[in-house]
Amino acid sequence: MEKSNVIVPRRDLTVGEVAARSGVAVSTLHFYEAKGLIGSTRSQGNQRRYPRSVLRRIAVIRIAQRTGIPLAEIRKTLSSLPDDRPLLASDWERLSASWNADLTDRIDRLTALRDQLTSCIGCGCLSMRDCPLRNPYDELSEKGSGAYLLEHPGEDIDEKGKKEKGKKKALAAD
Ligand code: FES
Fold this sequence. Notes:
- This protein is 51% helix and 2% strand.
- With 174 residues, it is mainly alpha-helical.
- Among the domains are: 15-80, Multidrug-efflux Transporter Regulator, Chain: A, Domain 2, CATH 1.10.1660; 131-173, no CATH class.
- A two-stranded antiparallel ribbon has the order 1-2.
- The protein is elongated, with a radius of gyration of 26 Å.
- FE2/S2 (inorganic) cluster binds next to loops.
């Protein structure tokens, strides 16, 4: 049999086809669309139709979500890209570069969280065994609310504060 040289134009995809190919539930696709992350056109029967390039866009969204980037940030970054063509490798380079600092910050916070899970997190409870060492007299309450040491990795109360609190305690004991 002779092969045809006719190139069949790739038709747009239905929502079910996009769901099957991307591994994303139809309801999630509708959600992405409502949030302005992806777009569709309508068929004559008023059904959603997506260009094949939406698959790459969805893959980028999923990867970004997996790394913890908020949807609003993803939408903002994607909106800087043209809608009329698929995402290119150069687009991905630009996207990943713009998310790099944020990712590094997240990694630092998660590392701090991992390292401090078994010790004082500066929440003000003073109940853990080493709290009096890291947060004597709830010194961190003066810096802010919440689990201060988790929210501000790398920071700790300063030595001057510790000494002044120590003096106050010594005077109170007299
Ligand atoms: S764990 Fe709560 S203040 Fe240290």
